[in-house]
Amino acid sequence: MKKIIEKIKVLNQNICKNIENTTSIDRGFFSQNILNIIRNLIEHVSLYIYCKEKNITLEFKYDNLKNAAQKVHELKKEFHFLYKFHKSIQIVSSHYTQTEEGSERLILKYYEYLLRIKLIFEEKYNLTLLNNLDKFPTYLDTNLKEYYENILNALNKYYNNVTLKNNNSNDRFYIHKKKPIIISNQVFYELSLTIATDDASKFDRFIVFTKDDVMTNYAIQGDIEKRNITILNKKTSINIIDNMKISIRPCEIDNFIKLFIGYNLDVGRLTERERISDYITQTGNTLLDIINLSDSEYDKLKNNLTKGIRNEFFNILDKCKEIIINKRSSHNIIRYLLYTFTNSVIKKVYCNKINNRLSNLYIDNKNIPFDQMPFATSLYNHNPKISDLLNCIDHEGREHEFLSRAIKNNTENNKKLYTNIDELNKFSDINRLMKTFYNNLYYKHKEIRKLEKWNNYVYIKNYEKNVVNILQTLKSYSQTGLSGYENFAKAWLDSFNEIDDETKTNTIKNLFLKSKVTIIYGAAGTGKSTLMNYISKLFNDKNKIFLAQTNPAVENIKRRVDNSQNKSMTIQKFKNSDSQKCDLLFIDECSTISNADMLSILNNAKFELLILVGDVYQIESIGYGNWFEIIPDFLPEYCVHELTKTYRSDDIALVEFWDKVRKIDDNVMEFDVVNKYSFKINEDIFIKKEDDEIILCLNYDGLYGINNINKFLQSQNNGKSVSWGIWTFKVGDPVLFTENNMYYKILHNNLKSTIKKIIDNGNEVYFEVEINKVISEIDLMYDMKLINNSENSSLISFSISKNTNSDNDDSKSNIPFQIAYAVSIHKSQGLEYDSVKVIITNEIEEQITHSIFYTAITRAKKTLKIYWSPETQNKVIKEFKKNKNKQDSNIIKAKNKI
């Protein structure tokens, strides 16, 4: 033990010396140094702990050090983090040296683990390690620090006063995010939860705090208590969760068994599930850890947990163990499902026929690509987190998968179709890895997902094929115009005197003179929707279809384009529609449309004229989409029209600010300061100055996330309230209907509404809600009633049950809407408000791209306030990059002769 202690002290001294010399400026450099030492520290610390806890002495040699973290996993739950820590850092340090920025991010992630090592050695072994860890700069926003200090005080009071604890929740929850918070050398956790149902959305998330570490793999139960704190001079409540335990849902057991036998055995409510959940709670082991036990340990555990009861699930685990040990087909699918065990994912992989290509299980063929290459492919309709994959599937020997993943990420996240080989220097022998990847592709995907090289670039074959097909199709529409259009347009313009500017008049004169496709670009508020309305009136007697990506965008078209009510729809609805034929096809907000969706529209729609509308500076598509950005490089100039005059605001300075941000002017920050758009985060956020006001946030979680801001603002609403479980609703609350609500065919996702009346009727709650949509009696569904309607809205009523039973496979959240005092920047695209407040914290500063920021600030018609720290403001603006990617256009032209 003496040698181990000596080595630990040397490693500790090295880390502390680096920390002592670290400042906020060079944090990345020293993080890089520290990261290279930490793996050694974990191995030595693990070996020491194992020997102390087992009261044994092991030789100080390489094999024992290498296996020490695995051995610690056999000890008590409190030491399991060392195994996870070691596994994470092993993946990083065994492959290539991290950049300073990458190392910095990792050290911040690992800070919690280092603190836990420090506390364990102080409290258990009376040894001082990492004594200056608190000097490592962690950048906690001043307001966040105050917030978390208040929460820590509330937690300490709660945990020190056992008599205050009440058992008040039998609900199950899924943990979507676990964030460790470290204040004054104390660790506690901010958990983002939803009720454990299959249809929970980001809107349904709520925040709880706890001092207890908890696994995030499985559904949990716990007691939730409210406590009051003050932040920004406002009183608010927080949720504290205690007595947490793993509680796998019965339907998860039943659906997993169904993958093996093909039918529902309905055994999930048996005692076996409870015993397994309790075992996971007590030990911290996962279902996959159970499978990985030695045969003797596994049999011993099985006999212990199934003694005297029916053991259907362990019989299935026997089959899992046989498949996994022998690496039979489906073994990676089973590994992942056992590690995460979420009902909605388990259901997605099921098929109703036995599959001899997947070990005779009832698993759909669409999951074979994941089974073969899990780090380069997703399960059907489910994208696993890379962290989960690394924790449940061995990554060794899968460099070809990581190469494919790197190229796909560069394409989808950085919008680069072609990746320069110089950017792939962490991979050796790229040609060999490309060949290995191709040989391992599922036979149906070989030509679609194949990686190809051109000169010094690597790309995904099908991604290139899609965009080339789009460009060629659009180019074919640009070759000839509409016969007789010149006189037709002139006659209409002579009779129509309502056009608001000369640019639109000239655009209409030239729209289809030489081409049957037209592209309309324009900054926010320049009247793109107005021009669409003029074009629609020009072809008044023709059949038209209007498409957009989101429901708010579709509703915007319906409001602004005359006679478009029954002809406007989302792209997804259009793709599923039987009627895809029209004379004019309008597509709005084209920057949000992926290449795959655009190609599907062009391949299936039948139209004479195509009008493409959007702004490349606003929010981009979720899937890979570069077509709208690059089409001006391939079509004749006469196809492209740009609107420049802004109508959204009469405020000259505000319009100029938009323009400076749009063009990434060097003086954006100076112009901002002069016109006082930016403010430090303060209580002014919560003081409403205008009736038509909105708060825009990027994320849903945290102090300044959408859900917490909604709770702050709701607390100032003095309307009648009804509360049950985690929910509170008040008369006067603005709400948005959610995607999976039972009335979704009428009350679509993101439909803006206001609660007008609430009555608590015991087991159910009666609501009267004014919706921003005009409906009639024929539209009503289930128990919905129409009270009255007006020109722009309808007052409806319905009742919702208070009961949600997470045991059941088909249990759904009964609440069809969510509080909406604040909304996400993404959901605000296409909307406008008199007053806009944008909140940006250092937690999300790296996610605020130029397009997201520009979209947010251009929602304001009169008043704009951006709440952020000077440091965050500087970092966000410094990172702005122009969207235009000439490289892809140039390569496509040279390679495909378009």
TrEMBL record:
A UniProt-annotated Pfam family: UvrD_C_2
Highest taxon in the source lineage: Bacteria
Signal peptide per UniProt: none
Residue ranges constituting the AAA+ ATPase domain according to the UniProt record: 514-623
Protein name: AAA+ ATPase domain-containing protein
